[in-house]
Design brief:
The structure holds three protein chains of three kinds. In chain A, α3 crosses α6 and α5 runs antiparallel to α6. Chain A is 81% helix and 0% strand. Chain A is mostly helical. Chain A is globular. Chain B is mainly alpha-helical. Chain B has a domain of 26 residues. In chain C, α2 packs antiparallel against α3. Chain C is globular. Chain C is 84% helix and 0% strand. The chains are: A mainly alpha, B mainly alpha, C mainly alpha. The interface between A and B is large, with 45 and 38 residues. Chain C: Belongs to the CcmB/CycW/HelB family. Chain C: Keywords: Cell inner membrane, Cell membrane, Cytochrome c-type biogenesis, Membrane, Transmembrane, Transmembrane helix, Transport. Chain C: It is a multi-pass membrane protein.
């Protein structure tokens, strides 16, 4: 009982944007250092590890492709939690978090698509195949783009927050259905399976850099997200101050 | 890493794309933050500041709670 | 409720309504496809059901932005929001009226368009059936996006962009049910049942999202 109320207090402590700014200012340098360290180690292993006997050097694309694909999905999860926070708890930072995550998510989805395509050309002989996984990622990218477009079109931040939260959740419920239907469609049209790495039976030689790079990308996202949230809070402050100054100027008359 | 491998161009291109995206995001975040802080400073120089901090040295981040 | 349904239906078929325009758009899309891919009758017969489905999807999207916008402009929306009946139900009824004006008329026009695409009777029947059963889902999921963009001056294009990714499952199962009915190895019933299940799911999700979005416009 007291434990939960303490957590709730912690959580609502974070709801004060000023306190969030102070806290994130202290956290951010450490997180950036951790990210740089993880990237250094991860890239070292990614470059020095042995190539696959079958895929050769192209297996190294996996070390940037898989982490960005993982991030693309995780960021949508973060946005969905934030959307719940906006709609259910009306947490004032939740919509800041959702809005700051959108461009980052779109960028990593795009990166996953580009690197996947660069991997597919030597492996499958085509830049793009209508494989179930690629197609679902393409749809995910479209959903990110739609959300960004909606956010750019709406001017009032409070209204934009509520509406995009609804849309994020609508998309979140639909993602499994889209995934399932694309799988169905793929087996209908493409009975031949494409070359793919054999499930979870990945050798430790590949797993080590993959996990390190995944950790590095995840830390990178949290750094970027924190910084983008800070920027978003400052942007809203500027907007409020501008409105205040305009109002006081209007009240004091043109002479003021 | 073997730079004479047959598909090395694709590997380098994908690492390059990752580099561009990551640095683009970092640049966007940093420049955006700088622009916003400049906005706040400009508004404060014009004598407009938030009701909650009327102190003159509020350009820096509000003091952290112990 | 019934009066709301009839009112919306009457408005849709009046001069400025979207019902007939959507039908004309469907006709135009189907008419330009042979110009794009050539007048080969065999090819047209093979891909005809898919063309009809894509055309119907686009035509159904076209009228979606008007679902709540006219009501918002003339203030009827505020009256609807103040009703005692739950907003979710009102949205559902409006969706049904919109579907009857767009999806149903599209499905009914398939026999004529099917002849243009050299479809035989079973293909026409299967396309009609799957379209009639698949377009409600399109309207229902579109209602959510239409409500989200209702406050925007030019929301129409945005509605299409937002709805298209969510409409992909409907298209996939609609087309695969149609093909399942026509070609022997593929099965008809599983995709058709999933299509019906999608209808039911979106009948819950779409009005819920739309009602939440419309409510959030008010405060």
């Amino acid at each position: 009982m007291s434990d939960t109320s303490l957590t709730i207090r912690r959580f609502s402590d974070l709801a004060n944007p000023s306190r969030f700014l102070a806290l994130s200012a202290r956290l951010l340098p450490w997180l950036c250092c951790l990210t740089a360290l993880l990237f250094a180690v991860g890239l070292f292993f990614a470059v020095t590890s042995a190539g696959d006997y079958q895929q050769g050097e192209t297996v190294r694309i996996m070390y940037v492709h898989v982490p960005s694909a993982w991030l693309a999905m995780m960021i949508y999860g973060v946005m969905s939690v934030s959307a719940l926070g906006t709609l259910v708890w009306r947490h004032p930072l939740a919509d800041v978090a959702a809005r700051a995550a959108m461009p980052i998510g779109a960028a990593f989805t795009g990166l996953a698509l580009v690197t996947g395509s660069l991997w597919g050309k030597p492996m499958w002989g085509a830049w793009w195949v209508w494989d179930a996984r690629l197609t679902s990622f393409f749809i995910l990218f479209l959903m990110y783009a739609g959300l960004i477009a909606l956010n750019r079109a709406l001017e009032d931040p409070a209204r934009a927050a509520r509406l995009s939260a609804i849309l994020i959740l609508l998309g979140f419920v639909n993602i499994p259905i889209i995934k399932f239907s694309v799988d169905w469609w793929n087996t209908l049209h493409q009975p031949a399976s494409v070359l793919r790495l054999g499930g979870s039976a990945i050798d430790a030689e590949f797993l080590r850099p993959l996990l390190l790079m995944a950790a590095a990308f995840t830390c990178l996202f949290f750094c970027l997200h924190l910084a983008a949230m800070r920027n978003e809070i400052l942007r809203r402050r500027v907007a409020v101050l501008r409105r205040q100054s305009a109002r006081s100027a209007a009240l004091n008359g043109p002479a003021a | 890493m073997n730079f004479a491998a047959p598909h090395i161009g694709f590997v380098l291109a994908s690492y390059g794309a990752a580099l561009v995206v990551v640095f683009g995001l970092i640049l966007w975040v940093v420049l955006d933050g700088r622009a916003r802080r400049a906005d706040i400073r400009a508004l404060e120089a014009a004598g407009i500041r938030r009701r909650s901090d009327r102190r003159p040295e509020s350009g820096s981040a509000p003091d952290a709670r112990p | 409720m019934r009066r709301l349904f009839l009112r919306d239906l009457a408005l849709a078929f009046r001069a400025g309504g979207g019902g007939l325009t959507g039908l004309l758009f469907f006709l135009a899309v189907v008419a330009i496809v042979p110009f794009g891919i050539g007048p080969d009758l065999k090819l047209l017969a093979r891909i005809g059901p898919s063309i009809l489905w894509i055309g119907a999807l686009l035509a159904a999207l076209l009228g979606l932005d008007r679902l709540f916008q006219a009501e918002r402009e003339d203030g009827t929306l505020d009256l609807l929001l103040m009703q005692e009946t739950p907003l979710v139900l009102i949205v559902l009824v409006k969706c049904l009226a919109h579907w009857a004006a767009s999806g149903l008329t599209l499905a009914l026009s398939v026999p004529f368009l099917g002849l243009l695409l050299n479809l035989d009777a079973p293909a026409i029947g299967a396309t009609m059936l799957t379209l009639a059963c698949g377009t409600p889902a399109l309207t229902l999921i579109g209602a959510g996006a239409a409500a989200v963009t209702v406050a925007l001056p030019r929301g129409g294009l945005l509605v299409s962009v937002l709805v298209l990714p969510l409409a992909i499952p409907v298209l996939i199962f609609g087309v695969s049910a149609t093909q399942g009915a026509l070609e022997a190895p593929a099965s008809f019933l599983p995709p058709f049942l999933i299509l019906l299940a999608l209808n039911l799911l979106f009948a819950v999700l779409g009005p819920l999202a739309a009602a939440a979005a419309l409510r959030s416009l008010e405060d």
